[in-house]
C-alpha cells in the first residue's frame, strides 16, 4: 500500500489517535445510460420489426419500471434493438489473441490480467451499480481488503474504481438518451467544483512535491461522488447501499470485540503505530486500515444508519437492531472520545426530530436500558480520557499532551488562514508549516509534521475561504436535502433519514479529525443527494 510521507493523521514515525497518549497517524492506501438512435436502414427484417422503437428516449408501452437506470443503459447499448458488434466483445477477442501470442511467463501473466480486467469491465457495464456497491463495502473494511492487496501489485480499491469509471465512460459514450438520469444536484456539482479548486490551489502552492500526494489522495477520493451518483439509479440500489453501510460497521465492530476481548486479530496491521495503546490498553481498528479514532467514527456512522432504519423499517427491524447492537458494543472499546461525542449528537438530533412520535417514550426507555447494558463494555481508560477533558477548565494544567496539541493545531491553522485567506497554503501545506520554526514554541507541538485535527479548519488553511465555502456547501447541501426528504413516510424517506443522520454524525466527528479525504465522507454526500432525488421521484 502506498503510504504518505507523514502519515494520515500524524508523523512519519507514527503516533496514536485522539487519546491522551498520542494523536495517531493513520494510513490509507489513500450512467445512467443515454440511449442511442442510430437511425433505421432501408432494408426490412423481422427482428427489426419486432424490436420496440424508441420515441423521444422512451420505449412505447413500457412502464416506469422499464425506464430505470439499468434498463435505459441496456436499451441504449443495443440502439434500436438490432444486434451489432460489441466493443467489449472485440476487446475480449483482442486480448485472447494477445494471450495466445504471449510466450514468456510475464507476457502470459499480463495477458491473463488484461483478460480479467476486460471481464470485470464487461460485468460493470452490465451492472453499473455493482462496482459502486463494492466500493462502499471496501471503504470501511479496507483492513480486510489489505489481505488481498498484499498479494496484488495494485490496490484493489483503486483497480475497482478505475474499472467502474471506465465502464461508466463507455456507457456514456455509447448512449445518448437521458431517461432515468437525475439532473446534477447541488452537492454533486459543488463537490466537483471543490475538486477543481483543490487542483488549482495545488498548482499555485509553493509546496510542490510536499503537497502532491495529499492532493492526489483527496482528488481520488472525490471521484467517489460521480461514481455513486451515476451508478446507483434505483431504489433497490440505494437500499443495498444502506444495508452495506450498516453491515460493514457491524463486521468491523465484531473484529474489535474479537481483538479486545479474545486477543484474536484477523486483519493485518498496516502500521504498528496506528494501533495505539494508552496506559497498557491496545486500541483496535477492527476491519479498517485507518487509525483507531477514524475507524471508530466509521462504526459510529454505521450505528446511526442501523438505528434510524430500525425505527423506520418495521419489516427488517430485528436485523437493523442486531447490526446496531454490534456497532454499539464495539464502539466504546476503541477508546475514541470524538466518536462517542458524535454518536451522542446524532442520537440527540434523532430524539428531537421524533419527539412527537407516539412511541418516543418507549424508544427513550430502550436507549436508557441499552446504555446501562453497555457499561460493562466500557473500558476504564475511556472514562479517564473523558475525565482529563476537565483539565482544560483547570487553568490548562493537564498531562494529556493530545489536548495541548489540538489547541496548537487550531491556533496554527487560524494563523495560516489569516496569511493567505484566498488560496491557502495548498493541499498538504499545514504539516510542513506545523513543523517549521515559526511555531516551535506552541504548546504540545512536536518536531515532525502533523495534520490539523479539524477537517474544516484544515480545508480553510490549505485551500482558502473559497475552498472552505465549496466544501461546506457540498456537505451542508447533502445534509439538508436528505433531512428534508426524510419528512415523508415511505421507504425512500426512511433511507434519506438514515443517511442524513449518519452524515451529521460524521460531520461532528470531523471537528476532531482531518476527515476531508476519508472515503465515507464523500460516499455519504453522494448517497444523501441520491436518496433525496429518489424520494422526490418515487416516494413509495
Radius of gyration: 25 Å
The termini sit apart by: 43 Å
Give the SSE string: HHHHHHHHHHHEEHHHHHHHHHH
Quaternary assembly: single chain
Kindly report the average pLDDT value: 76
Specify the biggest β-sheet.
Answer: 2 strands, antiparallel
> Judging from the principal axes of the Cα atoms, what is the shape?
globular
Number of β-strand runs: 2
Largest beta sheet: strand ordering: 1-2
Helix content: 55-70%
Strand content: under 5%
Count of alpha and pi helical runs: 21
Poorly predicted runs are 1-103
Q: Structural class of the helices, strands and pairings?
A: mainly alpha
Membrane topology: Multi-pass membrane protein
Keywords: Ligase, Membrane, Transmembrane, Transmembrane helix
Protein name: O-antigen ligase domain-containing protein
Subcellular location: Membrane
Structure commentary:
Helix 12 packs parallel to helix 14 (337-353), helix 12 packs antiparallel against helix 20 and helix 19 (455-485) packs antiparallel against helix 20. This protein has a domain at 189-380 and 446-537. The relative contact order is 0.14. The protein has helices spanning 46-50, 69-77, 87-101, 105-126, 128-140, 142-149, 156-174, 186-204, 209-222, 224-231, 235-262, 292-312, 317-330, 337-353, 360-374, 380-387, 401-419, 429-434, 455-485, 491-509, 519-537, and strands at residues 277-278, 281-282. Helices cover 61% and strands 1% of the residues. A two-stranded antiparallel sheet has the order 1-2. It has 540 residues and is mainly alpha-helical. The chain contains 21 helices and 2 strands.
